[in-house]
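Exercise 7.
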Amino acid sequence: MRSPLLSAATLVLALASGNAVAQEEDLTRLPPASDDYRPSQTPWGEPDLRGGWPIDHLNGRTPLQRAPEHGNRQLLTQEEYAARAEAVEALEQRYQNEDTNGTMGIGHWAEVAAANRRTSWITAPADGRLPAYTAEGERLSAAMRSTWARGQQFDSPADFDSWDRCITRGLPASMFPFMYNNGMRVFQAPGVFALQMEMVHETRVIYTDGRPGIPAQIGQWLGESRGEWVDHNTLKVTTTNFLPGPSATNIGTTGSPPENKTPVSASARMTEWFHMVGPDQIIYEFTWEDPVVFQQPWSARLEWQRDDDYGIFEYACHEGNVQIRNYINASRAERAAAAGGTSQ
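Solution. The predicted structure, written as tokens, is:
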């Protein structure tokens, strides 16, 4: 699963980051998405974003939420960046160590890419952290069940989140990097923009033909998306109709809330912008609004790089496989042993 382009990408990003350090003065701002680039057009006259856009190059030490000591800074200082690069290099060395020792462990399982200067993926609020929950958001989060939660007992599928059950990683979680299966590929046809995601083998189908939305009573794991070309290089996507529930999703990327219990309500709305700013670059931004769960909206930004050679592998996990049963049997056995009896 390890990308053969990782070393080259590491070098390029490191050099680019080093140059940026020398020139950057305001660490509280990111450069805006430029509208200067004019991408080629599809045969039917839309900006052509087709191709491979894996986000494996973003998987590393950059957290979802900013560390409090970084305040309102979007970028690391030169010294902080050097420390992160050193930490990433140590993580990357695990792969080589396992190869040398003839073993296979976390170094092969958890991929790591080059360090970058971002203090967090969250860009708003200004502190780079998730907003506070509402009272209802706190209640829903406390009711969630997940294998990420310490001390969790398992007795039925209701004790697992949708990612545990290999149903979906959900949104906005699916748009963030993880330690594996970071493939993204864009397909386009007249009136349709489709985003294939390697994680949980899902494809987001985004209609751009102006059709109306579906009834509000119909909820879906990934919601229902409608897109519009708002500029010569930008697709704006609005997604509603999310399936609510205390086990709907968790974010599950570096720096997520502990235990990853982030609920979604039927009132959630996600607005995304896919800005193509170069032949091999997309600036991806979104704003998440869920007034039932969060006290205010929050936004994030990630920089995508084209890699048409990235191979999307089978995500060998499906609902109803043996893992849910194994968790339940093991949990019952542990409790029975602690009570001095036998499991049922």
